[in-house]
Amino acid sequence: MIVDDHLVVRKGLCYFFKQEASVEITAEAGTGEEAMKILSEGTKPDLILLDLSMPGIGGVEVTSFVKKQYPSVKVLVLTSFEDEDHVISAVQAGADGYCLKDTDPEELLKAIQRVVKGSKNIDPKVAGHLFQHVHHEKSDEVIAVQSLTRREREVLIEIARGKNNREIAATLFITEKTVKTHITNLFAKLAVEDRTKAALLAIRHKLL
């Protein structure tokens, strides 16, 4: 489902995705209220491509609603905002990915495919701005990052780039089983429960 209050943007996205055999547009909405109504009426897309800034109920509120009511539905934010407040608010609300509207269409398609498969996707352009004004991290977090082995750090970087286990294994020339072991270990060391939090931590510590 595509949710964006700008008709030209919405129709442009619909036109692009209709050319892709792997994508089926089940619904489109121009407001957060309309999107929530469509969901409540029974339409359950695999993924919602969601704008953040809309009249009335915004994208952050829609994300929170979707994740509470329909946790299996993925949310990929597509916005022009790359400032810290918008990114953190969206991720805290449960967004599975964050892309900017100047993303190349083919890259956006890849991001959608990653998120549908269960990976997280954070636009690299956001990484450079995400924590510009954040206070220095607590010393225990710094120590935790420094405790990572070289391979665990490499795996963490690939997680932050939005890759799934199979893609990480291919990139680092190791098995998926080994990737899973490294992820279990680095999650324990960093005291994080999921890939999104691990990715944000990697960005915060400028590992990318």
Can you describe this structure?
With 208 residues, this protein is α/β, with parallel strands linked by helices. The chain has eleven helices and six strands. It has a six-stranded parallel sheet with strand order 2-1-3-4-5-6, sandwiched between helices. β4, α4 (84-93) and β5 (97-100) form a beta-alpha-beta unit. α2 (32-40) runs parallel beside α3 (59-69) and α8 (150-160) crosses α11 (195-204). The longest helix has 15 residues, at 176-190. The chain is globular. The two termini are 31 Å apart. Mean pLDDT is 89; it is low at 133-137.
Task: Provide the descriptors you would attach to this structure in a database record.
208 residues; alpha/beta; 6-stranded parallel beta sheet
In short:
The chain is of the alpha/beta class and about 210 residues long.
What's the number of helices?
Answer: 11
Global morphology? globular
Q: How would a crystallographer describe the biggest sheet?
A: 6 strands, parallel
The main sheet orders its strands as 2-1-3-4-5-6
Q: Percent of residues in beta strands?
A: 5-15%
Category from helices, strands and their pairing: alpha/beta
Order of helices and strands: EHEHEHEHEHEHHHHHH
